[in-house]
Each structure stands twice: as structure tokens, then as C-alpha cells.
Specification:
The chain contains 3 helices and 7 strands, in the order H-E-E-H-E-E-E-E-H-E. It is of the alpha/beta class and about 170 residues long. The radius of gyration is 18 Å and the shape is globular.
Length: about 170
């Protein structure tokens, strides 16, 4: 894939594009969380972009790894979204670096309904809060579960509260 999408993003958003990476036919754009909706709306709605297919959405925990950006405070997490345009035959990875003390991003479920459950999964496993999500609650784990098991500092032998539920056929 050419760098058409990355060039279009740089032209449209200028300094709001924090970084771009193009390697092995994978294009990645790094943006601030505050620009997520604006950038993704452009990617979806602009006829030259036409990103109509949400592929995946997840989080990466960099605990114990060298920083990928040069700052005094390296980000611990990256929120990652992969999009694809079926008609234009291109794809892009959108990445937002997050610190644990600002673990919020706006929901993309209003742009791509398919991200609704993926955001709930990422919330459940990592604890990212998706602002304005229509139904942000745990999807795999029970409500009393403490912590986020896919974070690298989650203790593998942690005991969770035992919850007994009475089920009714009514």
C-alpha cells in the first residue's frame, strides 16, 4: 500500500498527527486522544478514504518495554484501532498513547457499530474508559471482579471474590 492515507492525514491535520510509521505494508498514525473522533470521522466519511470496515480495537501494555516515543514520561499503554476500506483497498492503524492517570478515550461505536462490543471487551480486560459509550459494562467478567486481567502488572494468582447467584426460571 502506498502512503496515500498517511499523506492525506498529514495534509488535513498537520501537527495533530504526532507520528506516522510505514513498514511492511502496514501504515500507522499516532494521534492524541482529543483528536480521535475528528480523525476517525475523516477516515470514515471522506470519499477518498472510505474506511467502512472496523477490523479490531485493543490496548497494548508496554510495561517493561522501552518507550516507542521520545519523551520524559513514556506512555505505558497504547490504544489501537485497525480500519480497512473495502472499496479503496487500503488499511490503517490508528494509535493513541495513554498514561494510566488519563485512561479515557471517546467511543468510536457511534461511527462503527461493530466497535461497541470491542470497546466493552477492552474496558473489561484493560480498564480503558470509553467516553459516551452507550453501554459500558463488563462483557466477560462479573461485576464484582477486581482489576483488569490483561494488564501486565495483574497478579496471576490473585484471588477474586466468590459470587453466588440464585437463578430463577421466571
Amino acid at each position: 500500500m502506498s502512503q496515500t492515507v498517511l499523506n492525506a492525514l498529514k495534509a488535513k491535520f498537520g501537527d495533530d498527527i504526532l507520528d506516522t510509521v510505514s513498514a511492511h505494508s502496514d501504515e500507522t498514525v499516532v494521534i492524541a486522544a482529543s483528536k480521535l473522533i475528528e480523525v476517525c470521522t475523516f477516515l470514515k466519511d471522506d470519499p477518498k478514504m472510505d474506511f467502512d470496515s472496523p477490523v479490531f480495537l485493543t490496548c497494548i501494555d508496554y510495561l517493561g518495554h522501552a518507550s516507542t516515543i521520545d519523551d520524559d514520561e513514556s506512555p505505558r499503554y497504547a490504544y489501537v484501532v485497525q480500519l480497512r476500506s473495502l472499496s479503496k483497498r487500503h488499511r490503517i492503524r490508528v494509535k493513541v498513547y495513554l498514561q494510566e492517570n488519563s485512561f479515557k478515550v471517546p467511543t468510536l461505536s457511534g461511527l462503527w457499530a461493530g466497535f461497541n462490543w470491542l470497546e466493552r471487551e477492552t474496558f473489561d480486560m484493560y480498564g480503558i474508559e470509553f467516553e459516551k459509550h452507550p453501554d459500558l459494562r463488563r462483557i466477560y467478567l462479573y461485576d464484582e471482579f477486581v482489576g483488569y486481567p490483561l494488564r501486565k502488572d495483574y497478579p496471576k494468582d490473585k484471588h477474586q471474590p466468590l459470587v453466588r447467584r440464585e437463578w430463577s426460571d421466571e
